[in-house]
Each structure stands twice: as structure tokens, then as C-alpha cells.
């Protein structure tokens, strides 16, 4: 096997200096080495892709849809995405100039950030937030700025946002939102979205709104940020969470045409285009009544699971922010137990073979919290609560 010539390593791209693998993946890999471990660590739906969506991909293969298509995706798929956003969230996008189909939400986010950031720019992020964002920002030579939202129930307030804008000055280029949220499961209602938009509209900030969990909202309809401030918003959505298609890697990137012209260039240079069978499968998921019913069935199951887990963990003394979307519970470790969330998670997995994720990996405000994914069968969740109950009872403070 070849060894790198040492002198080649002296002056590589410094934007990658200090970047680390995703802490969620690191812990999950360690937990996987434990025999009999029960993992509620990854945000991975336990449902299989519905059969009619699989068949759409198979049909694309058997009809030889194997050639290069437009970099933004075939027109029929972009139209399906536009119709989906209109039907669910009353958003108006021209499928020819304002939508690109990306290789998952992550590539869409990467293309957004590639497009708008210059070295020295700052991006505001309500925290805790998904642990990938800060790395994508740093890769572009920019600086992530965390806004700790623990004191406001993990919902960014207008006052917090205005303070961050004032404090960081002209270097602020964008704000990156994620709701429903990974890791907290908290989302924003229409009034909260409007309140944030009222602050942003007085600025030249670009809003990147990651709404990949929008179809999984439980207590009220999802209110898209793009519906309130479309002229300043770049929107991410997709089929990964709504249709259990995480491995199929199809995202939706949408925004004003002038911005999307540049985003489409970044997307094309990064990946050329998404895969044809997956694109046609996404069209089936987004445009058919069967696809709509798939999501509603999954959503009903997630609500049952959420309610079960929240009740069980609350009884054990965990304090939980209201998880009104996505499929996560973000719980504060009870007093008297190990308060270092990383140590808590490692102790739990070693003693009781239950893998949860430490909250501090999601940024300021996540310390002393743990994240549980309830995208698992009810049988697994019942067993998980047995193991967590045993751990809590066996480690009661003196």
C-alpha cells in the first residue's frame, strides 16, 4: 500500500485543518462493538422504502434511464418537487429556474454554502444544532457563530437573533436554521417564524432553512420560513426522512432564481447530477397520493413512539423539551447522575448496552443532555426503556 510522501502534507487546504469526523458516527462505531447493544443513536428510520417507490426506481432501470440528465434533475422530477412544496406549504417555485435536485440534503447545503460564503464570513446558527453544519461552514473558510437557545426552550427568539447580528457586525453573511430540529425535536410555529423573519427582512442576511423533517410535525402544520421571507431564503427539503429514503440521497434545493443560478453551478461542479433511478423514485414519492399516505402512516407511528418515550423518560426524572417534530427526544440528565453527557452515554452503553448520543456534540446548550432517536420499532423502544430504567435505578445517587 502506498505511503504519502511526507512533504505533500505540509500545505494542504487549511480550511480542513482541525476538522473532525462526526461525533455521532464516532460514538456509534464504538457502541457497535458491544455485543447485544441496542442503538437509538442514529437518525435512521426503521421503515423500509414503500414498494411503489422501489418499483419506480426499477422501472427507470428497465427502461434504460441510464444516461446523463440535466444537472438540476429531470423536468418531471423538478415539477414533482415544485408541486410538493406548493401542496404542503403553499410555496411557489419555478421548477425550471428555482429548484435543483441534489444528492441528499447535505449536498444541497454544501452547494448553498459554496455559493454564498467568502473567507472571513460568519454564519449564525441557533444551538444545539446538527453537528454537520459547522464543519461545512469551516470548509468554506467561514466561521460558525452559535446562538445558545437552551434558555428559550431551544427556539431562537428575535431578541437573541438581533443581539447576535449586532455583536458580530458586517461579517455576518447568513443564518442557518433547522426545524423541526435535529437534535431537539423542537420546531417553530407560524408566529415564531414570522418573528424571526421580521428581524431578518431588515438585513441583507441570507437564510438557509433546512426543513428536511417538515413532513414529520405532530402538533401543528409545518410553517416554512420560505413562506414568510422567500426573497432571502434558500430552502432544503427532500425525501430522506419523509419516506425513509436516507440511503437514496435525493434532496430538494429551492430559492430565488438569481441565487439558484449560482447554486446550480456549484451543484453541477460538485456532483454533475443525482442518480436517475433515485430521481424517478423521488418523483413517485412526492407526486402521488400513495406517497402522501406513506408519510402519514409513518407519522402516526412516530407519534405513538414519541409519546411512549417521553412518558417513560419523564417518569425517570429526565426533563424534555417538547419534541413536536422529527424523531428525537432531547433530554436533560437528572440531577445526581453523571452530568458530563459524554461520560453518561459511555457509562450507559457499557453497563446496560443502550446507545444514546451526547448532547454536547450538537453545540452550546447541549451540555448535560442526551439525544434519543425513536425512529425504531416499538419493541426496541420498550426494551430501551427497560435498560434505561435499570441504569437509573442501579446508579441512584447516594
UniProtKB/TrEMBL annotation:
Keywords assigned: Aminotransferase, Pyridoxal phosphate, Transferase
In terms of Pfam families, this protein maps to: Aminotran_1_2
Read off the InterPro entries from this record. Answer: Aminotransferase_I/II_large, AspAT/PAT-like, NHTrfase_class1_PyrdxlP-BS, PyrdxlP-dep_Trfase, PyrdxlP-dep_Trfase_major, PyrdxlP-dep_Trfase_small
**UniProt enzyme class:** transferase
Which EC numbers does the record give? Answer: 2.6.1.-
Instruction: Specify the Aminotransferase class I/classII large domain's residue ranges.
Output: 37-388
Q: Using the record for this protein, list the coiled-coil segments as residue ranges, or answer none.
A: none
| Alphabetized SUPFAM superfamilies for the sequence | PLP-dependent transferases
According to its UniProt entry, the protein's GO biological process terms are: amino acid metabolic process
Which prosthetic group or cofactor does it need? Answer: pyridoxal 5'-phosphate
Q: Name one GO molecular function term.
A: pyridoxal phosphate binding
What is the superkingdom listed in this entry's lineage? Bacteria
User: Which family would the database say this protein is a member of?
Assistant: Belongs to the class-I pyridoxal-phosphate-dependent aminotransferase family.
User: What is the protein name for this chain?
Assistant: Aminotransferase
Amino acid at each position: 500500500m502506498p505511503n504519502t510522501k511526507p512533504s505533500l502534507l505540509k500545505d494542504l487546504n487549511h480550511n480542513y485543518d482541525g476538522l473532525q469526523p462526526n461525533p455521532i458516527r464516532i460514538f456509534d462505531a464504538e457502541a457497535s462493538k458491544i455485543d447485544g447493544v441496542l442503538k437509538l443513536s442514529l437518525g435512521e428510520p426503521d421503515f423500509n422504502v414503500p414498494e411503489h417507490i422501489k418499483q419506480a426506481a426499477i422501472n427507470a432501470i428497465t427502461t434504460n434511464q441510464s444516461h446523463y440528465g440535466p444537472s438540476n434533475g429531470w423536468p418531471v422530477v423538478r415539477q414533482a418537487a415544485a408541486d410538493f412544496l406548493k401542496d404542503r406549504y403553499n410555496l411557489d417555485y419555478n421548477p425550471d429556474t428555482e429548484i435543483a435536485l441534489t444528492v441528499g440534503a447535505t449536498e444541497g447545503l454544501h452547494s448553498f454554502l459554496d455559493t454564498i460564503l467568502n473567507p472571513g464570513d460568519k454564519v449564525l446558527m441557533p444551538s444545539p444544532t446538527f453537528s454537520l453544519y459547522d464543519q461545512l461552514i469551516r470548509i468554506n473558510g467561514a466561521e460558525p457563530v452559535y446562538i445558545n437557545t437552551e434558555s428559550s426552550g431551544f427556539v431562537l427568539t428575535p431578541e437573541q437573533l438581533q443581539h447576535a447580528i449586532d455583536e458580530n457586525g458586517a461579517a455576518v453573511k447568513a443564518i442557518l436554521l433547522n426545524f423541526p430540529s435535529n437534535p431537539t425535536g423542537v420546531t417553530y410555529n407560524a408566529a415564531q417564524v414570522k418573528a424571526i423573519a421580521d428581524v431578518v427582512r431588515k438585513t441583507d442576511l441570507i437564510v438557509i432553512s433546512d426543513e428536511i423533517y417538515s413532513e414529520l410535525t405532530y402538533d401543528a402544520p409545518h410553517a416554512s420560513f420560505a413562506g414568510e421571507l422567500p426573497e432571502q431564503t434558500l430552502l432544503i427539503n427532500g425525501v430522506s426522512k419523509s419516506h425513509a429514503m436516507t440511503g437514496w440521497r435525493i434532496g430538494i434545493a429551492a430559492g430565488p432564481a438569481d441565487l439558484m443560478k449560482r447554486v446550480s453551478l456549484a451543484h453541477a461542479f460538485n456532483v454533475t447530477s443525482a442518480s436517475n433511478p433515485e430521481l424517478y423514485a423521488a418523483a413517485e414519492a412526492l407526486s402521488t397520493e400513495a406517497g402522501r399516505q406513506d408519510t402519514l402512516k409513518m407519522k402516526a407511528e412516530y407519534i405513538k413512539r414519541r409519546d411512549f418515550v417521553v412518558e417513560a423518560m419523564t417518569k425517570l426524572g429526565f426533563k424534555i423539551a417538547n419534541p413536536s417534530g422529527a424523531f428525537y427526544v432531547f433530554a436533560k440528565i437528572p440531577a445526581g447522575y453523571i452530568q458530563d453527557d459524554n461520560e453518561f452515554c459511555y457509562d450507559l452503553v457499557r453497563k446496560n448496552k443502550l446507545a444514546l448520543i451526547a448532547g454536547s456534540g450538537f453545540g452550546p446548550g447541549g451540555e448535560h443532555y442526551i439525544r434519543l432517536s425513536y425512529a425504531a420499532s416499538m419493541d426496541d423502544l420498550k426494551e430501551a426503556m427497560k435498560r434505561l430504567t435499570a441504569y437509573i435505578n442501579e446508579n441512584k445517587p447516594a
